[in-house]
Design goal:
about 15% strand; about 350 residues; about 35% helix; single chain; Rossmann fold; two-stranded parallel ribbon
């Protein structure tokens, strides 16, 4: 197949490019030219911003992609541009959405009140109301890491826009928190640093320790994207992509510790006993675990990389590539020792 990827040079996209090429598909990339290609010389290359796609429509149409995978849709306006440019050019779109479309995310972030959402979250679970997905502070942090995130970020409206054009059917993939080598958010680092620093215990607030998140390893997520791009039965469908492991945050920490041979404790404390730098403003009674049965049943999705391998590769990368900026206030070991001493009395 002829597959065109928008923003496919980053954390997830480079793995999708490699798998597509290994399966003998023709690949084209639209990117800003700021990241080296994963397979230089093997792909067609178009340099430009997403906002300027309309100016490139002629040359993109001449390459005649069958499927377009858009990695960087954050707003309805961006989704509308993708539809306008590839309408009458491609047969279908694959768009990366997120588990943050579910009402459960709004409950977690205290943006919606009312009852908790039942888990696991399926593709038919209740969505949050269109509008702000995160607090202004959280959105600002996202924008500092992901340049394509704009002030109108809202994956609910992205999905609504994509579904508005039946002539260009969209496959929507709702992704989890993605971890692995190259993770721009360094999701494993806070745990890893404490273990490397020889901490005797890792402290969590009780509700956070028991919360059940939703994660996916980067190469496995990329494999799901490739399946969605190359299987015609995916047209018009929406899929959750997620690991099948229903681990709590404490259990994820235990997995990382076990991989490093750490013999410390994971200690959950009442909120009033937890150091301030470890407190998060979320409603962790709301779990985020997503069910991925549909993509497994319809597209035959299975994780090609096993859990122990994915954790090991992530740890190895994090050790070699710590964040450029580490906030020392987030590793206030004196406060943690005081809390630990109080918990032991």
């Amino acid at each position: 197949m002829r597959v065109m990827l928008i923003g496919g040079t980053g954390f997830i996209g480079r793995h999708a490019v490699r798998e597509l090429l290994e399966s003998d598909h023709e690949v084209a990339l639209i990117h800003r030219g700021q990241t080296p290609l994963a397979a230089e010389g093997c792909v067609a290359e178009f340099i430009g911003e997403h906002s300027l796609l309309a100016d490139m429509r002629g040359e993109l149409a001449r390459w005649s992609p069958e499927v377009v995978v858009d990695f960087i849709l954050g707003s309805a306006a961006q989704a509308a541009v993708t539809l306008d440019v590839f309408r009458g050019v491609a047969r279908r779109i694959v768009a990366l959405s997120s588990g943050d479309v579910y009402r459960a995310m709004a409950v977690l972030h205290r943006l919606e009140s009312g009852p908790l959402e039942p888990v696991p979250l399926t593709e038919d679970s209740r969505l949050r109301a269109p509008g702000p997905t995160y607090s202004p502070e959280t959105l600002a942090k996202l924008r500092s890491t992901f340049s394509w995130v704009d002030g109108d970020y809202d994956k609910v409206r992205v999905e609504q826009t994509l579904r508005s054009d039946p002539a260009l059917p969209a496959t929507i993939l709702r992704l989890p928190m993605v971890y692995g080598p190259g993770d721009p958010l360094h999701r494993f680092f806070p745990v890893l640093k404490r273990i490397i620093d020889g901490r005797p215990a890792i402290l969590y607030e009780q509700s956070y320790a028991l919360s059940i998140p939703c994660r996916g390893y980067v190469e496995n997520v990329a494999h799901a994207i490739v399946l969605a791009a190359t299987r015609e039965e995916a047209a018009g469908r929406t899929y959750n992509v997620a690991d099948p492991f229903r681990f709590t945050e404490a259990e994820w920490t235990e997995k990382i510790g076990d991989a490093l041979g750490w013999r410390g404790r994971i200690l959950s404390l009442p909120r009033e006993q937890v150091p301030k730098h470890l407190l998060l403003p979320y409603n962790f009674a709301q779990h985020l675990f997503m069910d991925s049965t549909r993509i497994r049943a319809e597209l035959g999705y299975r994780e090609p990389i096993a859990l122990d391998v994915s954790i090991g590769r992530t740890i190895e990368w994090e050790q070699a590539n710590p964040p450029r900026r580490i906030d020392p206030a987030m590793f206030d070991y004196a406060a943690e020792d005081e809390a630990l001493q109080g918990a032991s009395v």
